[in-house]
Amino acid sequence: MLSTIKRTFAVCCIAITPFISQNLMAKPITIGMSFQEMNNPYFVTMKAALDQAGKDIGATVYVADARHDVSKQINDVEDMLQKKIDILLINPADSVGVQSAVLSAHNAGAVVVAIDAQAEGPIDSFVGSKNYDAGFLAGQYLGKNLNGKGKVAILDGIPVVPILERVRGFEAAMKAFPDIKIVTKQNGKQERDTALTVTENMLQANPDLAGIFSVNDVGALGALAAIQASGSKVKLVSVDGHPEAIKEIMKPNSPFIATSAQFPRDQVRIGLGIALAKYWGANVPKTIPVDVKLIDKSNAQGFSW
Hints:
The chain is of the alpha/beta class. Helices cover 46% and strands 23% of the residues. The strands form two sheets. The chain has a six-stranded parallel sheet with strand order 2-1-3-4-5-11, sandwiched between helices. Helix 2 links the parallel strand 1 and strand 2. Helix 1 packs parallel to helix 10, helix 3 runs parallel beside helix 4 and helix 5 packs parallel to helix 6. The longest helix is centred in the first third of the chain and has 22 residues. 50% of the residues are buried.
């Protein structure tokens, strides 16, 4: 993970250095970031890192919460463009649905970088986790902990590329375990309450369920509540590295056995660095993948975003 970050920062520094001196006295930079949601510590952590980075470079930062509503996200971006933002960082609520907003920002002359989730349209770069790897690692871990047999379920989420990739990675991992069968895939909307209800239904329909893969930790925490209430022996794996998930993984005999952790602070810092390099005239990579790390009981102590 650190080697990836160091390499990326090196690229950013090399790209930006020739432009810094001639731009130090230029007008302050204005940055807009549109989040798919803010009711999630993962994105709250990302926002805090962006706010600090903006403060460090003397930029004005506007933030909007789409609340998983792509229509609201499009309107939020239009509002930011009215404020003459120089850089748009977008974390899409719907990878395809935000295309018109991306096009508007591009036509307005803003640098556009998608963060965490890919966006359709003329973006300048995308910075996000290796989501296929996240799903694969979680699936591989679950398969081994089930001794390669049993029925499993997928707690799905919203239709953005990272979620699709996590599911694809998990399904690929399951192919190594011919005696494991995926019996259901249902949408928990990445929300605790919805995931709890969906998991209750899964458990009722499949009383012999052995494992669940959740596409994110918030949904997994809802699933965990349902598992514990039912008294079942289901093992749970997920993606994110949420602080509450880490605490649950560390508990003795917890059904929550592992999560593929992401690094939200690094993602937004790299995204902003790439956007600044582009804004100041450098060529930048179209895609910058950020490593994930599997966290289980053995290495959960001390882990944080």
